[in-house]
Amino acid sequence: MKKKNETFKYFLLKIIPLGLGGSAATLLMLMMLLTFIDVVGRYFFNHPVNGAYELTEVLLAFVVFFALPLVTMENGHITVSLFDGWFNGAAKTVKELVINLLMVVVQGVMTWRLGIQANEMAMYGDVSRFLHIPYSWIAYLMTAMAAVSTLYSLYLALANTFQFDSSGATQ
Question: Where do the Tripartite ATP-independent periplasmic transporters DctQ component domain residues begin and end (predicted)?
Fold first, then answer.
């Protein structure tokens, strides 16, 4: 049983983030390359890339939502530490738990609403104007990434409650 648990933690904490990070980096590189080719084509050859704006829009959404679980797992969201000095010991643990549970709720609602929006886009057959890219599959992928981020927030809340670090070792 311990072997399965270690394999799951390794997959959750190493393999998934590695895949998401590699995907986000690749998509960002594609977006930069597309922008470069579009600018060169537009200004030097008077021939821009058809649909570059739509592709950039889609790639940007993918980069943001592929990076969201990574930022969540690393506890890297923007925070204001104005009142952090007021919390010590158990109060600090409770504060962290409340923040992580709020993140679960907020990201859960975001996931739920994205799923509803994706279903509506699929039902209406929404597509982009020039390239006719179906918006529903983009929204479904965004929903999946938001769900992964929500699960990471839940993991952080549990880690905070049961006092184990991100590697799973008990403190």
Answer: 31-156
